[in-house]
Specification:
The protein is of the alpha/beta class. It contains 20 helices and eight strands. The chain has three domains: 1-56 and 266-299 and 545-574; 58-263, Rossmann fold, CATH 3.40.50; 323-542, no CATH class. Helix 6 links the parallel strand 6 and strand 7 (198-206).
Length: 574
């Protein structure tokens, strides 16, 4: 593979990698990076790929500059023909005009250069069309393109002007005596200096007595800004004749320079290589900026993700603590449990006559209504804990996000993020009921063994399940004597009751299992809530391999450039 082919392949790889340069968060500089990525992708298609593939293709000289500088008049005057219409109205909305020798027409009508512009045979009021004119008064090997104003008040015109200048092999930059010091032209000229683009500057409409002075001042400004080698031509202001063209003598210097350039294949090649090499060098630096920007986006998104996950993890831990430290047994749940099983006498009977449990239980338990009351108390209390945890996690997450500009923008766009979702309270109640069902299935499965079947039937699935929930709420490790004062003696009663039916080890295993089931239900519930935040981040995600792809494209571009350019013209990339 030749050096030019390797460079062309590198540009194709760059074109494929650039879509990975995404900047969804409004981090400082993100707008600039988005524009840079889009501009670079367009330049790769419009200029880099076709030029690398055909270094001997005709040169494209783009005539650009400020509003009212006289670009179209200059083009017509150079060619001594009315080929492009000067704009009278502002903003000028006419399509750009590309003028080339008939021998070069096929190249410029193809999609090799500026493939996004539709070719036309007439000048339209459409900035996305390119009017191609074949004119034998222009020597082969060079085309002139009359571009829109770089400072147009029309966004599409300004964008197209930039696109065309970035697709040029050389610039004919036109300004006027009144505006040559304006900021916008110098922004473009600074970029040309940075890229080492071949530039010719024409300062038009100079007062007749000030041509030398203005030209000298402009030459000094060019030198100070790294453009000492730019060709500079000054044109005096004068009333135009009826044909609207400048006298031939006024533009003879520009015409002579262009004619010489077109006539010498070596000179054309030098221009093509110089501009291409300079562009490659600038792209290497631009890719570094894009890669750094992607990293900053990825880091910011990762931080937002951590801030959206951590509050819900803390919420789950808080629920687990409250559900296992005995605090839930100090209110309605404990009261309903005491209503259901009594206290002292039942405790003494369990301890003294556990063998006669089946005969005695019917005298102590007050019926299904009180079981249902206890179930409702458990459901209401635990649901309230979950709701509070979900609301607090939403508040903490939105508050953490609001500490950054980009997080604030997301929260502002989604007002509901500051509180739990509309369906969360109902979902919390459903999760508690589902866990209660889990516990009932757990004790039912444990009570099916032949050895304990009679004892289990004595209390039934519902009471066994309720007792197990009381044990779970009493302590993370099962009640001990020291904990009785915290959770209350009746919670110890629940443990002793279950031990009488299932045995001490089985009760410990059942409590651990029920506790894990509760944790799983809570984790799933809160994960669904956290997903409101993480789903937003997923929609803003940057490709995981974006930096690898861009770095690979940059490395390939360096290798391709070294292969394509000789030591004298190779861009300094290391």
């Amino acid at each position: 593979m030749s050096g030019a082919e390797r460079l062309t392949a590198a540009f194709h790889a760059l074109e494929g990698a650039l879509p990975a340069a995404q900047y969804p968060l409004p981090i400082e500089g993100a707008d600039v990076l988005r524009q840079l990525a889009g501009s670079l992708a367009q330049q790769t298609r419009d200029y880099l790929i076709p030029r690398a593939a055909r270094l001997d293709a005709p040169l494209l000289a783009v005539v650009g500059g400020s509003t009212g500088a006289g670009k179209s008049t200059l083009v017509n005057s150079l060619l001594r023909a009315q080929l492009t219409r000067p704009g009278v109205l502002r903003p000028t909305t006419k399509s750009p005009v590309l003028i080339c020798h008939p021998d070069d027409e096929a190249w410029f009508r193809s999609d090799h250069v500026l493939p996004g512009l539709v070719r036309t045979d007439t000048q339209l009021h459409d900035s996305r069309a390119l009017h191609v004119v074949a004119f034998d008064g222009l020597p082969p090997g060079l085309a002139l393109l009359d571009a829109p104003d770089i400072d147009s008040i029309d966004d599409a015109n300004r964008s197209l002007a930039r696109q065309l200048l970035l697709a040029a092999d050389l610039w004919l930059f036109v300004t006027s005596a009144a505006r040559y010091a304006d900021a916008v032209p110098w922004e473009y000229l600074a970029e040309a200096a940075h890229r080492n683009t071949v530039v010719s500057v024409i300062v038009n409409r100079c007062p007749p007595g000030a041509v030398v002075e203005i030209a000298g001042h402009l030459a000094q400004m060019l030198a100070e800004r790294g453009l000492a080698g730019a060709k500079l031509f000054a044109v005096a202001e004068r009333a135009l004749p009826s044909d609207g063209m400048l006298p031939a003598g006024d533009v003879s210097g520009v015409k002579h320079w262009l004619t010489q350039l077109a006539a010498e294949s070596e000179a054309r090649s030098q221009v093509a290589v110089q501009s291409l090499a300079g562009t490659v060098r600038s792209i290497d630096m631009q890719l570094s900026e894009l890669i750094d920007g992607v990293r900053r986006q990825r880091d910011a998104l990762a931080e937002l993700r951590r801030e959206s996950v951590a509050p819900y993890q803390r919420a789950a831990a808080a629920v687990a603590e409250v559900a296992g430290d005995g605090s839930l047994l100090r209110g309605e749940i404990l009261s309903r449990w005491q209503d259901l099983v009594g206290t002292g006498e039942f405790m003494r009977s369990v301890e003294e006559r556990i063998g006669h449990l089946r005969d005695r239980l019917s005298g102590w338990f007050r019926g299904e209504a009180k079981e249902e009351a206890l179930q409702a108390a458990i459901s209401d209390t635990l649901t309230a804990v979950l709701r509070e945890a979900g609301d607090r996690a939403a508040e903490e997450t939105s508050a953490a996000w609001s500490l950054t500009r980009w997080g604030r923008d997301i929260v502002a766009a989604e007002p509901g993020l500051q509180r739990a979702s509309a369906g969360f309270h109902a979902a919390a109640a459903d999760a508690v009921r589902a866990w209660q069902s889990d516990v009932l299935r757990l004790v039912d499965e444990q009570g099916r063994g032949k050895r304990m079947k009679a004892r289990f039937l004595a209390i039934g699935t519902n009471l066994a399940g309720l007792a197990l929930i009381v044990v779970v709420f009493a302590s993370t490790g099962g009640l001990t004597t020291a904990e009785v004062g915290i959770a209350g003696g009746t919670s110890l009663l629940a443990q002793r009751l279950l031990e009488a039916v299932f045995g001490e080890d089985a009760v410990r295993r059942l409590a651990d299992h029920a506790r894990r089931q509760l944790a799983d239900r809570v984790d799933a519930l809160l994960a669904d809530e956290a997903a409101r935040f993480t789903t937003i981040l997923d929609s803003l995600a940057v490709d995981a391999d974006a930096t690898d792809r861009l770095e690979g494209a940059a490395a390939g571009l360096r290798d391709g450039a070294r292969a394509a350019f000789d030591d004298l013209t190779a861009p300094e990339l290391d």
